Amino acid sequence: MSKQKLGLLLSSGIVAVVRKVEPEKVNSLVNSFVEGGISGIEITVDSEDAFNKIRELKQEYGNSTVIGAGTVVNKEQARDAIEAGADFIFAPTLDRATIEYTKEQGKIMIPGVFTPTEIYQAHSWGADVVKVFPASVLGPKFIKDVNAPLGYIPKMPTGGVDLNNIKQFIQAGSVAAGIGGSLVNKQLIAENKWDQLQQLAEQYVDAVSEAKMNK
After folding, report:
1. Averaged confidence pLDDT in the chain
2. Is the pTM of this model over 0.85?
3. Pairwise CA distance, residues 83 & 52, whole Å
């Protein structure tokens, strides 16, 4: 795994979680996010035509943005995503075979965790970053408290992170956040409001930048 890719993924502090968006709108949506400064794009594998979309996006944005697969629950899905060109695997759960396979392929692995034990286990199996999920249940204080003994393991809260709380999550010690519905706004997508989606992306990137400066 290229440290450069991981650095790029974390550089904006945002991974956009693109789930079940109509295939014909995905490219315009991702373009809005890339123009807005987001450096990590996740296509969930439960989306229509997910692997072809990963392949397309990788060809178009692969030098400027890190393109990966999400909602990956087993090694077989990870294999299909990596064969399509995915730079990273984002999982909602902790599965050793998926982690080890992804790392053998030289890709970034971000498994889902909920407890300090799972955070440590994920790291010991080779995870690059852990996805603290669902972050809405645990909150920023969990990140801060668990970072006391486990601060050397990078954490990315996902699930319920929005513009109202992202600064608190970053200031608590998160390296980035996975953002779904509050960024991948279904109404704006339905109305093809790509400029507004770009502005929304910019707001998230600015919020992360501001939070890092005020840590």
Report:
1. 96
2. yes
3. 10
